[in-house]
Specification:
The structure is a single chain. This protein has 81 residues and is mainly α. The protein has three helices and no strands. It starts with a helix and ends in a 12-residue tail after the last helix.
Length: 81
């Protein structure tokens, strides 16, 4: 996932810390990877595993909404319009 993000950045010449939406997307991607890792096998309990799974799904949806709207607020930017 990170390699794909790096490839996308170099191909489009849009860089994190220059484009706000891309910065948020990269940080959300890192959060998604950590949450997915917890959901799969690193969580100390079943409850934390399930919460991590749900959070990872929500984070993935937020990443898609950031890509769709090209806004750091993602889907929430539509609420302010």
């Amino acid at each position: 996932l990170l390699a794909s993000a790096i490839g996308l950045v170099t191909r489009t010449a849009q860089y994190p810390f220059v484009e706000a939406w891309l910065t948020v997307k990269v940080f959300a991607l890192i959060a998604y990877i950590v949450l997915g890792s917890l959901a799969i096998h690193r969580a100390p309990s079943r409850l934390i595993q399930r919460l991590s799974y749900g959070s990872a799904l929500a984070t993935a949806g937020f990443i898609f909404s950031i890509a769709w709207t090209r806004s750091p607020l993602g889907i929430f930017s539509l609420l302010t319009a």
